Amino acid sequence: MLNKIVDVKKALSTGAYQSALALTLSLPDICRQVEYGNTKTGTVGYPAWIDKYVDFSECYIGFGTEAAELNGKICYALRCSFLHCGNDDILSQRVARNCTITNFELQKPNGIDGGYGYTYRIKELPNGDKEVSTVFDVEYLCTLICDAVEKYYNDHPNKSEFDKYLCAKFV
């Protein structure tokens, strides 16, 4: 498992952001299978694992953005849209249709004004609805998820439960 995290870091350090993101988004799937076995499908287990282990508490800046913070369902929608469709259109995924974020975008590192690794913008529309846009630095997002996966792995008492998710030829 740790070799996968090392590969993510190598990909980030060489600017292979799509490769880093693809592998990062697959790691919680492995962890949810270790955590829940076959009792929770990816649609339920992936968001549950993310919500339990990934700390997104710093990923909002107040002023009404609290309800739009990143969570397990949004990460699962990103996983599905990126791995199956090749884009970051989370709103095309059923699981994200009722989320408060109306526009989601990923950018290369240091491409975000403000330097937080993410931004939120709330715009009130003429009809009274709110448009909530968020932009995440891909390296920041990968690091948040990989840190949680690494902690989960290190804290897990039975490392052999992860073995069936390794490609033996790559180890």
Sequence-ordered SSE layout with sheet pairings:
Elements: H1 2-13, H2 17-36, H3 42-53, H4 72-85, E1 103-107, E2 118-124, E3 130-137, H5 138-155
Parallel strand pairs: 1-3
Antiparallel strand pairs: 2-3
Helix pairs in contact: 1-2, 1-5, 2-3, 2-5, 3-4
Short description:
The protein has 171 residues and is an alpha+beta fold. It has helices spanning 2-13, 17-36, 42-53, 72-85, 138-155, and strands at 103-107, 118-124, 130-137.
How would you portray this structure in words?
With 171 residues, the chain is α+β, with helices and mostly antiparallel strands. 44% of the residues lie in helices and 12% in strands. It is built from five helices and three strands. It has helices at 2-13, 17-36, 42-53, 72-85, 138-155; strands at 103-107, 118-124, 130-137. Strands 1-3-2 form a three-stranded mixed beta sheet. A hairpin with a 5-residue loop joins β2 and β3. The longest helix is centred in the N-terminal third of the chain and has 20 residues, at 17-36. The termini are close together. 32% of the residues are buried.
Oligomeric status of the shown chains?
single chain
Would you list the SSEs in sequence order as H and E? Answer: HHHHEEEH
Radius of gyration: 16 Å
Mean pLDDT: 85
Helix segment tally: 5
**Spatial order of the strands forming the largest sheet:** 1-3-2
- Give the number of DSSP strands: 3
| Proportion in helices | 40-55%
Low-confidence stretches: none
Distance between the termini: 10 Å
Beta strand %? 5-15%
Q: Can you tell me the overall shape?
A: globular
| Main beta sheet strand tally, sense and closure | 3 strands, mixed
Secondary-structure content class = alpha+beta
